[in-house]
């Protein structure tokens, strides 16, 4: 019997790529999705619950797995209301982590962001930093906060600001050397490889910056060849 993975955010860029990777991974026999909209994929491995993620606490009996991957996140343009933004980027990951604690799920892997800092004056960075701090305080055995820089990859939706930002970052990327290396854009598939490696191994850092994500992904991809 293979392992069970819970994925939150499977309809997003990285969550969608993670779902595809899990479908191909023979070590996982069941993938449980909690989402407000369907991923649109019918597969024997997938069990999908379409719910209000703000009420995730109500689904404790269904929240059972070996590992939880949290790929939840929004943007200022999609969610200009700061209260709702906070409920998404802070509230949903915390609710998922609390369910891990209640149901003895020992591995929780969450996408945060480069620059996450609970003391930051920037709302986005502060929200991510506060989320990291409170989730890590729960002391789930294997908790990892991935802090990617600008995530690149093919999205189903077009975001003008993100598109222009990607072009600029790609042009400037050769200049990001030394301490600036962490600011280089990172492929969604790279994050997925790192998440899958972390689900199988322990790592010395709980907060994992973008350049370390790339190093971990190399380990995963090397093991597959």
Automatic annotation (TrEMBL):
GO terms for molecular function: NAD binding; oxidoreductase activity, acting on the aldehyde or oxo group of donors, NAD or NADP as acceptor. Residues 6-80 form the Semialdehyde dehydrogenase NAD-binding domain. It comes from the Bacteria. Transmembrane segments: none annotated. It holds the Pfam family Semialdhyde_dh. InterPro entries: NAD(P)-bd_dom_sf (IPR036291), Semialdehyde_DH_NAD-bd (IPR000534). This is Nucleoside-diphosphate-sugar epimerase.
